[in-house]
Design goal:
Length: 245
């Protein structure tokens, strides 16, 4: 399977550089952008997402009202995905994560109107359900420690699951933590020659449940099993695109 992932990574990189919108790069771009934004409440359909990526336009049903934020964040996600591809095989770093966030959020007017930092860590305390997230003044140190621990480990799928649970608990940004976190998973998987984990909106409740359990109890077994299932789904979707040399 390592050989398959190396070829997948090569095709993702080559197709991105060529602007090829017919292969595995385009499929993964559209799938991840649709699902990751949908998990966060986007109203755009998979067809609208694909049209926005392929042509820069969208056709709506009569009476459908687009939210500007949904379109802005979808195009931002396309840019963040490209940044992930450009970052492959480079060590994960604080500045890299901030760059992912900047690409996602730089064009979102609502974030600027709310005074949210873009490409920088949060400046106000926030919360997620019953999870106590990290205070703004502690974010730089906590994220640096998390990255250092991950980079010095085996970088297995289990390590990736642990990293994701802690990253989302820290919640380093004012908004966009879930999407940047899932973009980091993509990078981590490809860097480690592991089949990527592309989390489907259809499985959102299972994802949240497994993530919450990992954050509250420290037990990442359920999250790891969930990641393995999402890997299998993605592999079945893209195996026909990958041509082994």
């Amino acid at each position: 399977m390592e050989g398959f992932v190396k070829q997948l990574k090569k095709q993702l990189t080559d197709e991105f550089r060529r602007g090829d919108r017919k292969g595995v790069y385009a499929f993964t771009q559209k799938s991840m952008a649709y699902n990751s934004n949908k998990i966060e409440g986007s109203t755009l359909t998979s067809e609208q997402t694909a049209s926005l990526f392929d042509t820069g336009t969208m056709i709506s049903e009569e009476g459908f009202v687009f939210r500007a934020k949904d379109v802005e964040e979808m195009t931002g996600h396309f840019k963040m995905f490209n940044e992930v591809i450009k970052s492959l095989d480079k060590p994960l770093s604080v500045e890299m994560i901030k760059t992912f966030h900047y690409q996602l959020k730089a064009g979102v007017f609502e974030d600027y109107a709310n005074g949210y930092p873009v490409g920088e860590f949060k400046n106000r305390a926030n919360h997620v359900s019953d999870i106590e997230t990290e205070l703004p003044e502690n974010i730089p140190e906590r994220i640096s420690e998390l990255i250092k621990k991950y980079n010095s480990g085996s970088r297995s799928l289990s390590d990736i699951a642990e990293f994701h649970a802690e990253y989302e608990r820290i919640h380093p940004f004012q908004d966009g933590n879930g999407r940047t976190g899932r973009a980091i998973i993509l990078k981590q998987c490809l860097d480690s020659n592991i089949i990527p984990v592309i989390i489907s909106d259809d499985d959102k409740l299972r994802y949240y449940h497994a993530l919450h359990r990992a954050q509250v109890s420290g037990d990442t077994a359920s999250l790891l099993r969930f990641f393995e299932e999402e890997q299998s789904r993605y592999y079945e979707q893209i195996k026909r695109y990958v041509v082994l040399e």
